[in-house]
Specification:
Elements lengths: L2 H10 L3 E6 L3 E6 L2 E12 L2 E7 L2 H7 L5 E3 L10 E4 L7 H16 L4 H7 L2
Antiparallel strand pairs: 1-2, 2-3, 3-4, 4-6, 5-6
Length: about 120
């Protein structure tokens, strides 16, 4: 998934905002909460490494898959975040599904008023 594809997909999800921070990473939030990061400078064949939140079960399934790893910094703090480093075991369509699920997991932690305001 190219950076443009990643940004376009994340922008299509409701209630999202985009910021470039942390040394040029493309960070997507739903309301004030992070749900995805594309790390530049860590590309494989031109595609950025993409980090996203997952369920406990997905974390256990993905953490040892080729092209995936527990997300640096986030997973080391006990959070269930995965970083896709290549499409070896997760194609772009599956990545989009995981990004949508990350958005949902993060949005469900927002207050009801925030979810209503953001229409998520």
């Amino acid at each position: 998934m190219t950076l443009d594809d990643y940004n376009a997909f994340c922008a299509s999800l409701p209630g999202t905002s985009h910021v470039v921070q942390w040394g040029g990473s493309h960070v997507w939030k739903v309301g004030p909460k992070l749900f995805a990061v594309a790390a530049l400078g860590q590309e494989t064949a031109g595609d950025p490494f993409v980090t996203f939140k997952v369920s406990d079960m997905s974390f256990e399934m993905l953490k040892d898959e080729a092209g995936c790893r527990p997300a640096p910094y986030l997973a080391s703090r006990g959070m269930k975040w995965i970083q896709r480093t290549s499409d070896a075991s997760m194609d772009d369509e599956a990545l989009q599904q995981y990004l949508a699920e990350s958005h949902r997991l993060v949005a469900e932690k927002l207050t009801k008023a925030e979810r209503t305001r953001l229409k998520v």
